[in-house]
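Open question from group meeting: does this chain pack into something compact, or does most of it stay loose? Before anyone orders reagents, we agreed to write out a predicted structure and look at it together. Recording both the input and the output here so the notebook holds the full record.
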Amino acid sequence: MAALLLRGHDPDQREVLICQRRPDQAMALKWEFPGGKIEPGETAEQALVRELDEELGINAEIERSITTIRHSYRNGSVIEIQFFTATFAGELSNRIFHQMLWSPLARLPEYDFLAADLTLIRDLAVGKLL
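Structure tokens returned:
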């Protein structure tokens, strides 16, 4: 699961936090949304709160599910990612990423995102889902 951490209320000025994978990781330097895997016994929302604390040092409140994407990679692996909007308290602290930044929704297609995120990126950029 992954979080869309948004700021700004004007639809034309809205920004979302995006994070770039480190050079030493699989799919190096690709952009993604913060989040991770669900551990046994966790709901998706509980896992996302935990992951956002681990990755960004924030206390997140998960709001609503936006979409679920199922993606098959060329190597045969299949992933399913549930995307939620979330708000947070605290100061963002980059604990695991190469870099992070706030991007206007319309500019998301300019970044080299993970293949699994591309449909979501296109939808967000044209004002769908939010």
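Observations to bring back to the group:
The mean pLDDT is 95.
The chain has one domain: 2-125.
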